[in-house]
Amino acid sequence: MNRFMFGFSISILSSLLWPVLPSTPVYIGSVVAGIMLLKRTPVIAGVLLAVGWISLFVQLLLVDEPPNTVQNIIVRGEIISLVGSNGDWLSMDIRQSNLKSEFFLSKVLRLSWKQAPKLAIGEQWEWVVKPKPITSVLNQGGYNQQRSFLSRHIVMKGNVKSGTKLEGAVSLRSRIINRLKPELSLFTHGDLMLALLLGDKSLIDSERWRSLRVSGSGHLIAISGLHLSVVTTWVFFLTLFSLTRFKPSQSRKNILIAGLLSAVAAISYAYLAGFSLPTQRALIMLLLLLTMGLMKRFSSPWERLLYALFLILLLDPLSCMSAGFWLSFSALGIIFFTLSKWTRESSSHEAENGFRLNMKNKLAMFWSVQWRLSLGLGLIQALLFGGISAYGLIFNLIMVPWFSLVVIPLSFLCFLIWAGGHIFSVELTQVFTLVDLSLVPMSQGFSMIESLPGAWVSISGQTIACLIFFILGLFLLFRVSQNRWRFISIILCMPLLLSVLFGLDTPARSEWRLHLLDVGQGLSAVIEKSGKVLIYDTGAAYGINFSYAERVILPFLRYRGLDTVDYLVISHSDNDHAGGAKLLVNSFPDARVITDISEYSQLDCRPKSILWQGLKLEILAPEIPKDGNNGSCVLRVSDVKHQLMLSGDVEKEGEVLLLDSQKTLSSEVLVVPHHGSRTSSTSAFINSVSPKLVLIPAGFNNRYGFPKKEVVERYLSKGAQVLVTGSEGQISVLFRHDERRVSTYRGDLAPFWYNSLFRFGENNNTE
């Protein structure tokens, strides 16, 4: 095993846990030291050079951040993906072209354009853009957009103010997409075919995405290691079979020709997929493994995978931040390790059998690959996405072989026929009917799975951690023979076994938690007690495709293993508080809804007290139903030691009414009124509540400039600790006996460098 590559790769992978990246003097020093130690201690040299390389890479990637003083910038670039639309807004990814570093470091921007003209992939445009940082909402169980953006080299978001088209789509792939997309859209499964052939998922709607998630089969339509491996394998064996039959050779010429053609096929397929970063990674791994195999260079499977891992991390050290990296690498690793035995056996019989193994052995090896892929990728998706399809493993056990044997090769063949028809001016679009029919079992499987109970099983964060150790323990148990390693493997399996038998995370009866979720410029809070939940407000919803209830609240509950919502409190009807109400009401039909919104109300917001899980819920206001902010349902939650107030959007008028009501307002923790606006948080109200901890639900870089500086200073002057969700991400408060413990996503739950704030392009707007 190459010790330098091992040290380099392990160090890059460990960067996922680094709190900060080294400063310029530190990483320059690590590079110099690494070069000096290269011959003496290659492992340490690899570690030091990796530290320098990833630090330099990130600095080069982010070096062109626009300053905060710049309102609009001009960017030129090529449209590489039409991400989707929501209402009047169209989102797209563009590859910047007006950069000196574009030759060796691709930078991508995510732009949103309101009422955009007709756009096509491959077009060159010049845009006037209002830049925004890639800072995003961060919550447990939620989609980490910052990390995903960095893994794809997306360094900036922005809103397009105007655009000028410079050049039409000139690349071959762009012309193919623009011609094939409208033709495939006429087929029942045209969305899946377009994704399979060209990596364009723009035709896939939210319903189809949900079906792919529930069935655990999203990896089947994302061009990755599985797809490239299937195409490469088919081309290799068909070419070798043809050459052996019609032009036999005693030398290795036919094998080399077959290998070369299969490599060309893999590169062509990757080109059709747009050479996206996940496809590039899979292609590099595949070509490296193919080359080493054809060269008959002796190396263990571990060493071959290490070479592939090193090369990928050398070319793009941020690739390990994406789920696609782990899925692609795992797929190729499973295929490679399973076939390594077959390769050794076939090599020993090559002279007498001419690579013709009997059909029984071929089928046995094919089945061995398929069940390992189905099981392995299913478990990895569970670890990455916080849940598992209860029937997904069975579904994949059928669909992975079906895609490998039928769908992927048939799609590739029909595409070649279609392309040949266009060359000779013959319309052959109907050939894709065969591919459409081959996808019928998949869509029928979707319908069947969705009709069954428990189609998607959420896995809590603790269970995921236990499952990781369990899988590692099982792997060691079957791969090692030394007793000490077997003992370690048993220890690794114990957390999952104990959690199943006894439930390791049973909270104390007196313990309860507040989770103020990061939902941008809006409010949503979850109170957790004894495995039961009260939700206060739902965050906003925008257009028909986006709501924070779906993107943040539901994933958070799944991550925490919380599936019983007893109460849903909707303070008032503003979108940033009630946008996800309908989704949550439908998701938790047994929850009692407390609100003055007639559409949802089961209990009104008139002052009352409710005993829930040993906690006292006091609805303090309003005395009479009101429209607008001052009609917000104000809730005070308390036990014998701690008090929490959730105040919605009440303004000065509402605060005065609360003070006049003579109710007890004193609260240890306060979720401030109206996101820290000047219209709220009067001195009299602050004095009466007298909070020790103040939480402000305000989105990072929001257009209102919340929280206002003078409001924050007002709370600080009273000795309160102030935290803002936009800066901290999710804020969780644990109440236990006399203890109050605060943790934030960026500071405590996931304090990693890629979760830090990217601050350029901040708003200076006032109310």
3D structure, described in words:
About 45% of the residues lie in helices and about 15% in strands. It is built from 27 helices and 23 strands. A 7-stranded mixed sheet has the order 14-13-10-9-8-22-23. A 7-stranded mixed sheet has the order 15-16-17-18-19-20-21. Strands 1-2-3-5-4 form a 5-stranded mixed beta barrel. β20 (about 695), α25 and β21 form a beta-alpha-beta unit. α10 (about 275-295) packs parallel to α12. The radius of gyration is 29 Å and the shape is globular.
Secondary structure layout plus pairing:
Elements: H1 3-14, H2 24-36, H3 42-62, E1 73-86, E2 89-96, E3 108-114, E4 124-132, H4 145-151, E5 154-167, H5 172-184, H6 190-198, H7 206-215, H8 225-246, H9 253-272, H10 277-294, H11 301-315, H12 323-348, H13 350-353, H14 359-385, E6 387-389, H15 392-423, H16 433-438, H17 440-450, E7 456-458, H18 461-479, H19 483-502, E8 512-516, E9 525-529, E10 532-536, E11 541-542, E12 546-547, H20 548-560, E13 564-569, H21 575-578, H22 581-587, E14 592-594, E15 608-612, E16 615-621, E17 634-638, E18 643-646, H23 652-660, E19 669-671, H24 683-689, E20 693-696, H25 709-716, E21 721-724, H26 725-728, E22 731-736, E23 739-744, H27 745-749
Parallel strand pairs: 3-5, 10-13, 13-14, 18-19, 19-20, 20-21
Antiparallel strand pairs: 1-2, 1-4, 2-3, 4-5, 6-7, 8-9, 8-22, 9-10, 11-12, 15-16, 16-17, 17-18, 22-23
Helix pairs in contact: 1-3, 1-11, 2-3, 5-6, 7-17, 8-9, 8-15, 9-10, 10-11, 10-12, 12-14, 14-15, 18-19
